[in-house]
């Protein structure tokens, strides 16, 4: 009897029923979270230390963490993950994100299991009430039935309680834990990065850059030809975001920003992409010189020369902790619906399928997308098929992933000549350049290129930018350009340009990173 009553509050395996409630809002005041066993194990696994590094000054501990690490809300803790799974708004966005990547079945399964558990709780509770009120020997409203019938019902209820309900309760537990693990290690980190990037892109385009420290002005270049791929140039934004002086940064591998609670899985993913010379985005817990942790939305891409050799890696760091202070902020961020203006950006199509770096592949894929266009009718026969094959050879996940970064459109200029040395494939696409015209960008002066695409350039545009760069300061300015989008909408497109000087160890400007985003 007591056991029957217990079903009101707990599942048969002892876990509290529906710990967060189905209509949980943004208030986390007194939540007692119960992460699944598998999740706790996964968290423990994250503590396995990687092989020691030459510049690994910070020990990485295996300490499990709760909803916050050193006072910073933790996106990836099992507790927060469970809350995200059970919060209707965040679960809905995660479901939509998964469905768009052809893996919605996992979230749909968890949603149905949640529903199943709720119904089971209700069933258990109702059975308990019926037993207590009408059937049990001391029931207040005992039914006027034969003793034999009452005995049989009592026996049936006991049997159901002892065997059927526990079996029903455990029916999906293993599968649920397995699926939760899968989500936590794959789609969930991608979802978090996507949501964070969406928010940063909006801030970069919408004139609220100051909400994120480093957004649009924190960059570094590393040189893979030097042992351990150290930073060789860094912007002032990098100095202020990390709190280290330039001489403490150059020449050092960026891992010095990692610490006790940096997620090893994210570092491994990053390392794999760097090794494969692929573009990547990670959300990493990093530490300022003061030891203060911050969430770093990190973008890394190789910069290739015309022969396809990696000359530098470009890193763009955005401190997201300036907008994420607690779990409510995390939930708010993860509840943001997809903004079609951002996600349907036509230029992102190029980034979706192409590898980054120099001009080559961006142009190739542009050719592929325009294969029915007369303009490209002189492409040698069979070329289109080569390109289709190339896309088909891409990993399925790679094809599905909307590769989405805050810095999808960038150029890297030499200084003081301000000649374009590297650029993202999306720039070629945006400026509607013929693949054969890639040379048009490479080694040409940026103002000459902009002038060819700007119906009119603000009078002081060039002067303002040149003088800021000369004095080593980052500068932003809007400009109207004739782009792919403007061809579609029949008017020039307003773009915000952000110019960031990258300096060597003597604080001399050697390179300039230019990023372009939708203007205000
Ligand atoms: C251009 C560039 C920028 C990077 N920026 C950061 C960073 O801001 N924070 C960080 O934790 N790691 C950053 N990394 C990653 C580390 O330098 C290193 O590649 C990573 O820790 C994996 O290697 P490891 O396992 O040898 O440490 C960056 C790497 C590159 C190439």
From TrEMBL:
One GO CC annotation: nucleus
Gene3D superfamilies from the UniProt entry: PAS domain, Regulator of G-protein Signalling 4, domain 2
Annotated stretches, region: Disordered: 14-33, 40-65
Alphabetized PROSITE patterns for the sequence: RGS
Keyword Flavoprotein tagged: yes
UniProt KW keywords: Chromophore, Flavoprotein, FMN
Domain RGS: 80-201
InterPro entries xref list: PAS, PAS-like_dom_sf, RGS, RGS_sf, RGS_subdomain_2
Transmembrane segments: none
Pfam families (UniProt xref): PAS_9, RGS
Protein name: RGS domain-containing protein
Taxonomic classification: Eukaryota, Fungi, Dikarya, Ascomycota, Pezizomycotina
